[in-house]
Amino acid sequence: MAEEKFIVFDKNFTYGGLLSVSGLYRAARTFLESNDYSPYESRHEEQVFPDGKEILVELKGVRDLSDNASIRFETILQFTDITEQRVELDGKKVRMNKGSVSVTSRVILATDWMNTYEQKAFMYFIRVLIDKFIFKSYIYRAEKEAKKDYSRFEDELKRYLNMKEFR
Amino acid sequence: MVARKSIVFAPLRIRFRGEYDYDGLLDLIRNHFAKHLFGELKEPVFKYKSRPTGAEVEFKMLSNRNVTHYIKVYLTVKGRMWDMLREQKVIDGEKRIRTNGKLELYLIGEWELDYANQFGTAPDDKAIQRLQNAAEKWMQSNLDRPDGGLKYGDNKMTGKKYVENIIKSLHDDIKSFLGMEAML
Fold first, then answer.
1. Which of A21, A48, A114 is nearest residue B18 as measured by Cβ atoms?
2. Confidence check on the interface: ipTM exceeds 0.90, yes or no
3. What separation in angstroms does the CA of B74 have from each of A60, A98, B32, B43, B157?
4. pLDDT digits (tens, 9 = 90+) for B14-26
5. B109 DSSP β-pair partners
6. In this complex, do A44 and B180 lie within 8 Å of one another by their Cβ atoms?
7. Is A36 within 8 Å of chain B by CB?
């Protein structure tokens, strides 16, 4: 198994009010697509209740930085009490939603993701030495890259939701 | 022959609770196999149970397709629907049967290399057998990785990318058919 390190562990932000479910989903997926994460939905759940919809989307993506390091991005968009709203924007009636959303993300840095050094105990020992003394700067750079990606992702979603701190 | 490998992210899971068109959904899945020129569609599992809370259906559909002489892809759709209550409703002036209930679908994509076993059988000569075994071992450890092709750009990636695209398009089609909110 690859060596995994949590760069971001279950970081969460919530928003309640007027939003567009499909727009937020599109923003998250487009971000991951444009950053080479090739996203996929491992879980997509939707429940329709009389007082609104409950939606859960789990988006996952993997970006291979090199033969040795890859970043795994996992984010859960959980929408609750989603109802339909017609809003007038620039003189046009637009379909929006009202409700709340909680975005939870996890970013994992996996090194030796091809399991090249795990076939023998000696190779495992060699990997520890290599990680500690030779690949240290590369791993540090990969960690920075993962952190940067997450902060850009969070900014993108917050900007989309028009949260106050981003105005 | 190399064992079947599932694509990195399989299975994709869709869960839905609400009103949907049961017959239309099954037709959509069957048509997806036909649209992508898969072979004979097999339905080894189809169970129907009638319960007081509503009917329960369990099904499995699978098929495969030879993409090239070397690559074969498999697509499997497993599903379970329960608490199904069928009602007749008028939609756009037409009488239609809608189903209210819960459903769960699993989409599984797999790919297989050297399905015809061209590299597997060796003639009686032991030296050639040893050479073939070594070549196959090397291929398995170095080239036949799900992501190996990204580096080398060889044509076996056709299989993986192909099944990825098929499964993603089926996933999107089902979501739009069920009228789910979170869609592209």
1. A48
2. no
3. 22, 41, 13, 14, 15
4. 999 999 999 999 9
5. B75
6. yes
7. no
